[in-house]
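User: Structure please.
Assistant: Input sequence and predicted structure:
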Amino acid sequence: MPGQQTIPHLSRRPHRAGAFRLSGGGRVSLQRGSEPVATIAALPFHEALVIGALRARCDGPDAVADFEMELTALYGRDRMERISERLDEFFGLTLRHVRRPVMRHGQTCSCVGADEAVLAHLVSLSTSGDREDAMLMACLLVRADVAPIVVSLAQTLGLELIRQRPEGRAYPSHTPNTLH
């Protein structure tokens, strides 16, 4: 779309029934990394937030503004700004150095794609102190020389998300309506 900022190395998985592409030899396969592996509702709160942030950042400034309004309602303005900065740092570096395009599902999709799950789980592993496992996961996504920095940014992001988590609040505040 004209005037919309795009994130390099990121692809949006089409959300049509039978959204498959032909791979070499005429075999039908899902786009690599887009396979549904979970639902948003089944994820821990901070992992769902990471996926929501990824989707919003890929959908453009209006979606980011909506996401930040929801963060403000959950955390307050000051915390939202810090979280938004951590998200920008993490996604900025990670998506600049990915090994292949990262696939993601649409903002209203209730399922979680494989690539989205890996990014969210990387944040969880980094936050919980499983640095070696987080490094292994980061190396699946980015070059080995960038992986330690990605893990460090993921840890900072995750700690900011779980610090004083708003009790009794769910993310997203609405139930996404698309499921594969």
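The first strand starts at residue 10 and ends at 12.
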